[in-house]
């Protein structure tokens, strides 16, 4: 996302992107494209008027906003968070920033890493209408292929993203069960995958391929497509909201249980599709599949 944005800023002759990260070296490709690294988030906020954040959990966003609001003057600055956080977190962040004269857009994104690299993400944006209009040129056909305007209430976009991940994680759970069924019955995972692609299309076929290719447990040191820790966090948010509203998500609960067991068995270097490994174990098969890595 940041690399696409920096290339766009260069193309229109704008000032370069100012960026920071816990591991600053991860921004070296940005630096090579002309972006400016800084050591900390406060410097990012001081140096810019529009600030994008992408973080792994709610507590980190809270901490960043606390840093920003501790500065003497953030009047007129716009903060856009592209992470998946609880709707109440988005609401609290918006209120904290408003007190200091800044504004907030909750803008979680839909799409895995290849879609981000291609600039084809879907942005679900909620916040002040004029601010969404203001930043749209930096998003539409730059970092994303579509903006879904969710209105003024920042909780709405967070809720849509969490709802969307019910599908993603639920589909993975269902496909894992089907592929284990195919292996145990002798039907074969290849035939099952061909059927999934023909009947349900390339998206669900890609979820199946994350299992059959072994990408659910990539080689150590290779980042997963949708880290199991992040998927687990998203599932917990959805389940908590469902309980609060008096409904249930049993498929998601099963998936979270299996992701938790996978993390306990094999650590954190797993994709969310690692529900497959536990489904295999529960059926009497090895946790590791033929194409995955074979150890922790």
Automatic annotation (TrEMBL):
<dbReference type="InterPro" id="IPR006115">
    <property type="entry name" value="6PGDH_NADP-bd"/>
</dbReference>
<dbReference type="InterPro" id="IPR051265">
    <property type="entry name" value="HIBADH-related_NP60_sf"/>
</dbReference>
<dbReference type="GO" id="GO:0051287">
    <property type="term" value="F:NAD binding"/>
</dbReference>
<dbReference type="InterPro" id="IPR008927">
    <property type="entry name" value="6-PGluconate_DH-like_C_sf"/>
</dbReference>
<dbReference type="InterPro" id="IPR036291">
    <property type="entry name" value="NAD(P)-bd_dom_sf"/>
</dbReference>
<dbReference type="GO" id="GO:0050661">
    <property type="term" value="F:NADP binding"/>
</dbReference>
<dbReference type="InterPro" id="IPR013328">
    <property type="entry name" value="6PGD_dom2"/>
</dbReference>
<dbReference type="InterPro" id="IPR029154">
    <property type="entry name" value="HIBADH-like_NADP-bd"/>
</dbReference>
<dbReference type="Pfam" id="PF03446">
    <property type="entry name" value="NAD_binding_2"/>
</dbReference>
<comment type="similarity">
    <text>Belongs to the HIBADH-related family. NP60 subfamily.</text>
</comment>
<keyword id="KW-0520">NAD</keyword>
<protein>
    <recommendedName>
        <fullName>6-phosphogluconate dehydrogenase NADP-binding domain-containing protein</fullName>
    </recommendedName>
</protein>
<feature type="active site">
    <location>
        <position position="161"/>
    </location>
</feature>
<dbReference type="Pfam" id="PF14833">
    <property type="entry name" value="NAD_binding_11"/>
</dbReference>
<keyword id="KW-0560">Oxidoreductase</keyword>
<feature type="domain" description="3-hydroxyisobutyrate dehydrogenase-like NAD-binding">
    <location>
        <begin position="160"/>
        <end position="276"/>
    </location>
</feature>
<dbReference type="GO" id="GO:0016491">
    <property type="term" value="F:oxidoreductase activity"/>
</dbReference>
<feature type="domain" description="6-phosphogluconate dehydrogenase NADP-binding">
    <location>
        <begin position="3"/>
        <end position="148"/>
    </location>
</feature>
<dbReference type="InterPro" id="IPR015815">
    <property type="entry name" value="HIBADH-related"/>
</dbReference>
